[in-house]
């Protein structure tokens, strides 16, 4: 088994591969076989502090924040090219860490270089300095200058690490921030690849620092007053903890958290068409996607037909080895996570839902953390399986009296990350979409798009990632009021 990482036993800090402070390690287990894949160093608080110190010095004393945006953009373009060269390596790593089928890794990875290129292009298009006319009696001219927020702690989950790294790292670097990138114990491969790329493209020392840590050391990153901003993707429970810690010291943060996203199926849509889209989305990354459409809301008169069509399609999903080209869904990422998903399946049964498909482990797969794609019908939206994020291939079909009731059910959730309206009437989709409390609303499927901007309402998070909106959290506005217009051109760093 090839492990395409050069220094998994070290951390990348201050532009160099350094030894950890202890001999503690983390063993990464292959999700489909339960066999050891590789071992990485585990960061302790001392290592976290060292990485933060390097990022702090690089921001306060190094050349990176003093460069122009155009100069930093050239590094982003170099990173994009280097990521493109590592696609085959991620095909080896990603399916083994989290269970994504290898057939979709290359298509997904083609989007990563584009993220870095997009933010590089913003160097010429975004107004980092804007002239203003003072309204008071002091000063005759002024400007609003968008400056980097400072040192960023980027905390990455295990399900889609390379994508989530890109949409944190690219805007942070363009803005002029320095970064401590904290990989997850379950899937540290992508952060290590990024560390190797940072070294390859010659980023100034301390601009990007990469460590892998579990929760205790990760919390040290959040608590460290030298870190100006935390960018986190993960569970709502951890997000609440981060928000509380950052509030205590008035630190900046963005949180991309959980979801329990609704799909409203209107009466004009062909149910077979809707079922095809919903099953494909449920199986992607074994349902380990925060934006997955997990609550299917359909009129009560069409409920049974919707359940029947979904169940038939679920029964045909081939679950197995993610490297088998005929497989449509791989395993879950860890044994602990499978236990959690299975506990929710048991809960759904006890709450009174109709188990229409799945509910167990696939036959013939005695090793690996596999579960069957699972469908519940006749679900009441107040039940826990309809209210709590399962983060697995479990779909709930919820009957509604009418369109108004469907909207009410969709919004009856602590989450507000994603939603969809299934209809061929675009005006109707837009009208209903405006009533849904969700960060993204798509027509006829999951349309979550980091390239435009992604994030949630309510307890699905705070702030946005991707698009121009994804740059704002890495900037602080400074108002400058001057007595007269400066003789020099604006410095657009």
UniProtKB/TrEMBL annotation:
The keyword Nucleotidyltransferase does not apply. The active site is at 256. Keywords: Oxidoreductase. Residues 17-479 form the Aldehyde dehydrogenase domain. Pfam families: Aldedh. Signal peptide: none annotated. InterPro entries: Ald_DH/histidinol_DH, Ald_DH_C, Ald_DH_CS_GLU, Ald_DH_N, Aldehyde_DH_dom. Belongs to the aldehyde dehydrogenase family. This is Aldehyde dehydrogenase. It comes from Sporichthya brevicatena. The lineage of its organism: Bacteria, Bacillati, Actinomycetota, Actinomycetes, Sporichthyales.
């Amino acid at each position: 088994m090839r492990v395409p990482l050069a220094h998994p036993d070290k951390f990348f800090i201050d532009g160099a591969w350094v030894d950890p402070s202890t001999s503690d390690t983390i063993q990464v287990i292959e999700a489909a076989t339960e066999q050891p894949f590789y071992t990485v160093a585990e960061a302790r608080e001392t290592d976290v502090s060292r990485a933060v110190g390097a990022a702090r010095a690089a921001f306060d004393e190094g050349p990176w924040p003093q460069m122009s945006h155009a100069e930093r953009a050239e590094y982003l373009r170099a990173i994009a090219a280097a990521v493109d060269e590592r696609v085959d390596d991620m095909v080896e790593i990603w399916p083994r860490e989290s269970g994504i089928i290898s057939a979709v890794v290359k298509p997904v990875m083609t989007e990563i270089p584009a993220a870095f290129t997009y933010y590089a292009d913003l160097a010429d298009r975004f107004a980092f300095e804007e002239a203003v006319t003072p309204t008071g009696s002091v000063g005759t001219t002024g400007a609003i200058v968008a400056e980097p927020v400072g040192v960023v702690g980027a905390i990455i989950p295990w399900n889609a690490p390379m994508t989530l790294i890109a949409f944190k790292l690219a805007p942070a670097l363009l803005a002029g921030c320095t970064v401590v990138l904290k990989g997850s114990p379950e899937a540290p491969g992508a952060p290590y690849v990024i560390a190797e790329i940072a070294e390859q493209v010659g980023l100034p020392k301390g601009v990007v620092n990469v460590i892998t840590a579990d929760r205790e050391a990760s919390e040290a990153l959040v608590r460290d007053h030298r870190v100006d901003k935390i960018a986190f993707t993960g569970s709502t429970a951890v997000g609440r903890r981060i928000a509380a810690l950052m509030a205590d010291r008035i630190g900046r943060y963005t949180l991309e958290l959980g979801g329990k996203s609704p799909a409203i199926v209107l009466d004009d849509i062909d149910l077979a068409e809707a079922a095809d889209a919903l099953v494909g989305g449920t199986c992607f990354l074994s349902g380990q996607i925060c934006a997955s459409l997990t609550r299917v809301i359909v009129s009560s008169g069409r409920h049974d037909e919707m359940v029947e069509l979904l169940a038939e399609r679920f029964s045909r999903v081939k679950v197995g080895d993610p490297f088998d080209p005929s497989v449509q869904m791989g395993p879950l990422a860890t044994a602990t996570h499978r236990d959690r998903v299975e506990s929710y399946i048991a809960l759904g049964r006890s709450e009174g839902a109709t188990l229409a498909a799945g509910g167990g482990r696939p036959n013939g797969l005695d090793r690996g953390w596999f579960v069957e794609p699972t469908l519940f019908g006749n679900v009441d939206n107040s039940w826990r399986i309809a209210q709590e994020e399962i983060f697995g291939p479990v779909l709930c079909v919820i009957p509604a009296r009418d369109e108004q009731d469907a909207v009410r059910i969709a919004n009856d959730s602590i989450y507000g990350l994603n939603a969809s309206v299934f209809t061929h009437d675009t005006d109707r989709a837009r009208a209903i979409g405006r009533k849904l409390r969700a960060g993204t609303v798509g027509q006829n499927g999951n349309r979550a798009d980091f390239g435009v901007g992604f994030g949630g309402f309510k307890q699905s998070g705070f702030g946005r990632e991707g698009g121009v909106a994804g740059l704002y959290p890495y900037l602080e506005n400074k108002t400058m009021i001057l007595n007269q217009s400066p003789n020099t051109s604006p410095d657009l760093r």
